[in-house]
Amino acid sequence: xxxxxxxxxxxxxxxxxxxxxxxxxxxxxxxxxxxxxxxxxxxxxxxxxxxxxxxxxxxxxxxxxxxxxxxxxxxxxxxxxxxxxxxxxxxxxxxxxxxxxxxxxxxxxxxxxxxxxxxxxxxxxxxxxxxxxxxxxxxxxxxxxxxxxxxxxxxxxxxxxxxxxxxxxxxxxxxxxxxxxxxxxxxxxxxxxxxxxxxxxxxxxxxxxxxxxxxxxxxxxxxxxxxxxxxxxxxxxxxxxxxxxxxxxxxxxxxxxxxxxxxxxxxxxxxxxxxxxxxxxxxxxxxxxxxx
Length: 292
Description:
With 292 residues, the protein is an all-alpha fold. The protein folds into two domains: 3-70, no CATH class; 82-291, MetI-like (MetI-like fold). Helices cover 71% and strands 0% of the residues. The chain has 15 helices and no strands. The chain has helices at 3-8, 12-50, 54-57, 72-79, 85-115, 121-130, 140-150, 157-160, 167-179, 182-190, 195-206, 208-223, 227-232, 241-244, 257-291. Helix 2 (12-50) runs antiparallel to helix 15 (257-291), helix 5 (85-115) crosses helix 9 and helix 12 packs antiparallel against helix 15 (257-291). It is flat, with a radius of gyration of 26 Å. The mean pLDDT is 83. This is Binding-protein-dependent transport systems inner membrane component. Belongs to the binding-protein-dependent transport system permease family.
């Protein structure tokens, strides 16, 4: 071997380290793949059960591929007496209003805590964070009494208004705005731009990945919120999807498993669609949070 070839040949220690890193990467990939399969098993069983008759759902061994495939459960869910169309409409109204309202509120709050300077700012922010230590279940009864006095009990507003202020969302956006360059705002102020123009034209576009990530989290938590709807809603016409799924349970406690599984699968479709649409922004936002 020539001297030049020997000089540029990889060192044995470097080759060993690369092999160890490659083996570690493959090992992590195998472990994560196995965990993904484990977590997917209940979902696959639910999809399979939604295409079976009730008597075939609990057969042992499990028949993962229904034979024959029965779509009657989905017909019952969407066009039968227990149609969930109205529940999906109610949940859509609550989710859209909550996302728009919460993003508007927490974006302004996060910008104020992250970019502006005012007296008592840190004390106020710490006091605001301290409210997250109060369990949400403790607020259900006061919230119930409050909305009943306002005449908003048993309305969709009772599900929308509590979600407009979120400690976690405010904290996340505060961290995002605090890491944004202050020089941009100072330069805009020198040029005569007002605070509203600075927020709207400079800092808000920079927060799009964080807002997309928050929109996914808000959608997921609001769409699947069963506890609040159970306490605040009594009129069946105002049921959301989680409450609507309880209609597949009879008075004696038995459950129509086929329609219930079909309804559960249908309720997951909007969540999956929203995540697939915004996953690029979601992953980008989580990566940026992890780098700070």
